[in-house]
């Protein structure tokens, strides 16, 4: 499974940080073999069609957020349907994706990747406003407080979490309390701050057809 994650990045030609700290080291597959799986380093593919480009951008974002095809399709179509004069579809799309509990756990520093965050949530390790939530797609909102379940804090995987959280730099809309092992949602994500490694317009073009 881990090797498959590396192949995803190599196939799409971009680091998606699917394996946490390893992606920041010289062991990263994109450093060792920065070309698609099954191809030699010097081999070049022909130019992608418009559809191919749109598909590639969609696949980048889908893997970036660790989503199924059904999930990213639903988020994209919902953003297109809800756009207004005050807020464009791109902003709505990113807000929805960033508000997922698995993304918040990752952004807050409780997990090294969104994939790991999803697994930890599934094990019931986190509370939202004091209530155990084990649904990775759960949508957080302003004022919500996400914390480790008291029993979870004693697990080996969270052994050094307090010291890590004190140093971790979270997005502006997430406030970290390293002493309480808690993250508070103080605002909403915005497209400019998130700056995803994709062309959002291409993804909307893909789903508009």
Structure in words:
With 209 residues, the protein is an alpha+beta fold. Among the domains are: 41 residues, Ribosomal protein S4/S9, N-terminal domain (Ribosomal Protein S4 Delta 41, Chain A, domain 1, Orthogonal Bundle), CATH 1.10.1050; 86 residues, Structural Genomics Hypothetical 15.5 Kd Protein In mrcA-pckA Intergenic Region, Chain A (Roll), CATH 3.10.290. It is built from ten helices and five strands, in the order αααααααβββαββαα. Strand 1 and strand 2 form a beta hairpin. The protein is globular and about 55 Å long. The model has no long low-confidence stretch (mean pLDDT 87).
Write the layout of secondary structure elements.
Layout: H1 2-12, H2 29-32, H3 50-64, H4 69-82, H5 89-98, H6 101-108, H7 114-122, E1 126-128, E2 131-132, E3 145-148, H8 161-167, E4 174-177, E5 182-185, H9 191-194, H10 200-208
Antiparallel strand pairs: 1-2, 1-3, 3-5, 4-5
Helix pairs in contact: 3-10, 4-5, 4-10, 6-7
